[in-house]
Amino acid sequence: MKLIAHPLVRAVKFTGSTAAGRQVAGQAGAHLKKATFELGGSDPFVVLEDADMDLAVSKGYISRMLNSGQACINAKRFIIVDDVYDEFISKMKTHIAETCVMGDPNVKEVNLGPVVSQKQADKLRAQVKASEAEGCKVTKIDVNLEHMPKGGDTSCFYQPAVIENIVDGSTPTTDEFFGPVFSMFRVKSEADAITLANDTEWGLGAAVFSKDLDRAERVAK
Prior knowledge:
alpha/beta, 10 strands, two-stranded parallel sheet, about 220 residues, 8 helices
């Protein structure tokens, strides 16, 4: 905080939690410093009924799993129109199982490493457990584990999970999952998808999948 007050500091850029962001914003305001923030995200990934399913699945997988699911701008809420929900879910589960290699990130073949800390892994487990207790359906996906550390501490690794049947007001609707967890929301229509995508206090990124570019741009706006 003393650094923000220093006269040579002209502006502040902060990436992190909302709670820490409030403290930094307070200091920046007190010292009349320009400031920009990238805080929590609950980024919607909207799949409409005319989307290319294989493309949506492959891009959705990358967007959720990048950096072990620990990026503010990762896809966080998969919002899928009812007509293609079952197809998308089935293909995504298969894609995760066939694509994901979890283990030591120093190994070339590995594409899913541990989360950043034991604290974060424990938080993720608690969030998923709470979701299940609230009535959501949780499916752990069996993935390639041949490159997991042998005989070492694996407690910071988290097996990819898919959450379905999400209950209104449950943890997946209110929390940001910072790890390889796919929250799947079924909606009846494009209008419902837009409403749900906007039903969050967070901004950051979003994605819309449709073969109709004009439609996708309209929904995105």
